[in-house]
Structure formats: structure tokens, C-alpha cells
């Protein structure tokens, strides 16, 4: 199961319902929005992990923390938790590197989906722990990390060609076509 599939299925579709509620979209719109947001955020993770100028060990440590993977089973328990919103903002900094990075993600996703960037900005802290959790669940599942590359890069390299760029870009295309 791919990382976007993990997000789509979290809480037996509860995450999609929550996104629809917050964004005012139907199920298809929620799926498109989650796919685009998830792909953009996973692209940010890829960039941070591959960058020589960033230490990604903190991010990798968070991914290995099973509490985020466990959140995917019942994400609705965390949506209105104020401490989780604060934690989501901290995790968002690990994913995007800065508030400016988060704004750029929101702007790009808004352009692709037509959903206002202010709504997307409100979704980012809610999704950040689930993005981290999907990566953790992917690593624990073992299916995508057997590529000979190690750690996060190996898990994001779905076709085992040594590059994750095509794999992360393919995540969005799978759901947007």
C-alpha cells in the first residue's frame, strides 16, 4: 500500500470526511485535495532528506515514533486536540523547514485544487502528524523500504531506481488523473 493510500484509508475514510467538512468539498474533492496535499508534503520530506544542507535525523526519529502511525487508525480523536494542533505546527516545520515553506505548499496546492490557501493552511497542522504517521506506517510495513537504499530515501523510492523524485511526483499523478 502506498503512502497516499495509507492517508486515504486512515480511520476508514474519516480523514477524508474531515477534510471535506473543513474544505467544503465532496468526496472526490476531498480525495483530490488530500492526494495533492499529501504529495506536496511528501515532496517536502523528500527534499529535506535528500538535502545536504539539512540534518534529517530529527525527522527520521519522528517517523520511527509509532504514536504518529497509530494516529492513522483513529485520526478523529486528534482533530480538535489543541496540543495536537501545536504539535502539528512543530511537525510541519520538520516537513517544510519553515513557515514560508508551509505557505508555499499551501499556495501551490491552492493553485492546483482551487481550494483557498487559507483553508489549506488550516489543514496543514492537522495533516502533518498523519504524514509523519504514514511514513512510519510505510516503514513498519516494510514493503517500500527494501530497496537497497537505507532509511527514508529507500522507503520513498518505490520503483527502486535510486531516485525518489519520480516516485513522489507519481503519487500526485495517480490520484489526479
Tally the beta strands. 0
Helix content: over 70%
Oligomer: single chain
Q: Which residue ranges are poorly predicted, with pLDDT under 50 across at least 5 consecutive positions?
A: 142-150, 171-177
Tally the helices: 10
Task: State the gist of this model.
The chain is mainly alpha-helical and 177 residues long. The protein has helices at residues 3-9, 14-23, 27-50, 57-64, 66-71, 82-96, 99-113, 117-141, 151-156, 165-176. The protein is built from ten helices and no strands.
Write the layout of secondary structure elements.
Layout (H helix, E strand, L loop, with lengths): L2 H7 L4 H10 L3 H24 L6 H8 L1 H6 L10 H15 L2 H15 L3 H25 L9 H6 L8 H12 L1
Helix pairs in contact: 1-3, 1-8, 2-3, 3-7, 3-8, 3-10, 4-8, 6-8, 7-8
Describe this protein's structure:
With 177 residues, the chain is mostly helical. It has one domain. It has helices at residues 3-9, 14-23, 27-50, 57-64, 66-71, 82-96, 99-113, 117-141, 151-156, 165-176. The relative contact order is 0.19.
Notable traits:
177 residues, mainly alpha
Amino acid at each position: 500500500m502506498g503512502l497516499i493510500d495509507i492517508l486515504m484509508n486512515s480511520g476508514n475514510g474519516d480523514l477524508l470526511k474531515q477534510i471535506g467538512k473543513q474544505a467544503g468539498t465532496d468526496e472526490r474533492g476531498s480525495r483530490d485535495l488530500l492526494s495533492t496535499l499529501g504529495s506536496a508534503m511528501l515532496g517536502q520530506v523528500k527534499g529535506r532528506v535528500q538535502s545536504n544542507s539539512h540534518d534529517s535525523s530529527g525527522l527520521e526519529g519522528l517517523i520511527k515514533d509509532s504514536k504518529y502511525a497509530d494516529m492513522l487508525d483513529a485520526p478523529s480523536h486528534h482533530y480538535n486536540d489543541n496540543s495536537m494542533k501545536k504539535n502539528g505546527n512543530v511537525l510541519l516545520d520538520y516537513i517544510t523547514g519553515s513557515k514560508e515553506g508551509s505557505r508555499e505548499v499551501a499556495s501551490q496546492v491552492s493553485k492546483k485544487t482551487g481550494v483557498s490557501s487559507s483553508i489549506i493552511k488550516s489543514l496543514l497542522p492537522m495533516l502533518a502528524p498523519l504524514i509523519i504517521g504514514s511514513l512510519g506506517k510505510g516503514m513498519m510495513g516494510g514493503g517500500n523500504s527494501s530497496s537497497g537504499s537505507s532509511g527514508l530515501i529507500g522507503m520513498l523510492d518505490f520503483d527502486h531506481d535510486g531516485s525518489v523524485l519520480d516516485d513522489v511526483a507519481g503519487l500526485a499523478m495517480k490520484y489526479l488523473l
